[in-house]
Design brief:
- The chain is of the alpha+beta class.
- The protein is built from one helix and seven strands, in the order βββαββββ.
- About 20% of the residues lie in helices and about 30% in strands.
- The chain has a three-stranded mixed β-sheet with strand order 2-1-3, with no helix packed on it.
- It holds the Pfam family Trypco1.
Length: about 110
């Protein structure tokens, strides 16, 4: 069963996110208390994932012959306790990285 968690927005308001409960835990609540409040803001939760993406991008851009395009894909999972984490996907892979080089015109 999925649970609902409310993440406050730094600019005001909030966003409610459906999350998977932690394994081995069961929620006991009153009917009027079905939404758990997250420990931090939505933006703060995504900050670590944003920093990880920026670091990965910087690594590929710093290659001696850097690619013309870099595409990094990964899933993001939100939890009330940890905020945003990079989600486990398919066959245990967390990142899908696509690098692209375009052949330079001859004579360049």
């Amino acid at each position: 069963m999925h649970e609902l968690t409310r993440f406050p927005l730094e600019g005001g308001g909030s966003v409610v996110v459906e999350i998977d409960p932690l394994p081995g835990t069961a929620r006991v609540s009153r009917r009027d208390d079905l939404i758990e409040d997250a420990k931090g803001s939505f933006e703060a939760a995504l900050a670590n994932v944003r920093d990880a993406a920026a670091s990965a991008l910087a690594t590929f851009r710093s290659m001696t012959k850097g690619p013309d395009e870099v595409e990094i894909k990964f899933g993001v999972k939100l939890t009330a306790q940890a905020g945003a984490v990079i989600a486990k996907t398919g066959l245990e892979g967390n990142f899908e990285v696509k690098l692209k080089w375009v052949r330079e015109p001859e004579g360049s």
